[in-house]
Amino acid sequence: MGCRLKEVLRPAIFYSFSFSRNRGWTTVNPSGLGITEYLAAVCAEYQIVDKIQLNTDVRQFQWLEDAEEWEVTLVHLAGGTGDLSERDRHAKADAEGERSVYLATEVRAKIVVSAVGGLIEPKVRPTGIDAFEGEFIHTAQWKPNVDLRGKDIIVIGTGCSAAQVVPELIKPPYNAKSVTQLMRSPRVIPEILSPEQLKKWAPYSPILMRNYARKHRPIVEEHYLRYMRAQVPEKYHEILTPDYRVGCKRRILDSGWLRSLQEPNIELIMSRLQSVQSKSVTLGPGRNYPSIMSRDDSEVPTDEVTLPADVIILATGYETNQWLLPLRVPGKGEKDLHDLWGERGGPQAYLGVAMDKFPNFFHDHWTQHDHRTF
């Protein structure tokens, strides 16, 4: 399963490099393997494979005043630890020392360019997860060989990643026993468009996105609701009806998630995650949506319930409120970049690419560019 391009309005061709277009995509939204094969082919074509270090974390950039250079701390996984879970790596490091798992090296450079992006550091540790004895996985760190057969699975989150993952969990090769999905708030969920439909409507997009959109917004909203209600059991109609206008939050382009909610071993729940035990999770009392204060007549459950859990899958997104997380970047005078931003009221950069007190340190994608999904 791994990853798949979730933006059906931005098909694979738009995620190809302009200097090396891939004309061999077999689907509009290729799998993670297909994307990896394309990137590997580009690296081989331009002979840069030996310039790339995989399985490597950059922990820190340190400006050296006397040498007028940057010292970059790199951390590599030690041999034989690549298949260990993060929890097992920490346990091994605690028992045998950091060097049994992580090997640190330093390199120096006159110029450093950060292209880490924003959707890079997953939100991976809900409260109490350390007590859980089963396996927990973030969708951004999917394990291709994970064994889910016959297991009770809790999925936390209902964004784009969750909508792709949930329908697959009960199918071969995963064959989960049950899937319980925890939702905080509903999303607008339009039907996915085919390539032919996209091609048909593309010439009219400038008009559709302006006056037409404002005039027909209520019609579109009603169309989306009818589509949702036609796909899911009636018990989900209330919790899948948003209390905001279309466009206020990111839409989920439905490629099978709604229909999967008809399956008897998939359940969608609005109850709050209260605690995590060794082999179970406790939900409630209370619910995330609709508000108890605003909907006294709602039939959505609010009782406390404990559910068995063999695996917890986190579809909880990324740490998007901190730039360059989790890097440390001490510049001139050993002033850390994050501390300086804090003193100045938030991230900033000259022309979006450079900062004073950080010589020859450039970045191509942060501060003045809001990449966050909402």
TrEMBL record:
Molecular-function GO terms, alphabetical: oxidoreductase activity
Catalytic reaction equation(s): L-ornithine + NADH + O2 = N(5)-hydroxy-L-ornithine + NAD(+) + H2O; L-ornithine + NADPH + O2 = N(5)-hydroxy-L-ornithine + NADP(+) + H2O
Pathway named in the protein's UniProt entry: Siderophore biosynthesis
Cofactor dependency: FAD
E.C. numbers: 1.14.13.196
Signal sequence range: none
The keyword Lipid biosynthesis is assigned to this record: no
Superkingdom of origin: Eukaryota
Keywords: FAD, Flavoprotein, NADP, Oxidoreductase
A Pfam entry, by short name: Lys_Orn_oxgnase
PANTHER family assigned to the protein according to its UniProt record, in alphabetical order: L-ORNITHINE N(5)-MONOOXYGENASE-RELATED, L-ORNITHINE N(5)-OXYGENASE
Similarity field: Belongs to the lysine N(6)-hydroxylase/L-ornithine N(5)-oxygenase family. Belongs to the FAD-binding monooxygenase family.
Name of the protein described by the UniProt record: L-ornithine N(5)-monooxygenase
Organism: Elaphomyces granulatus
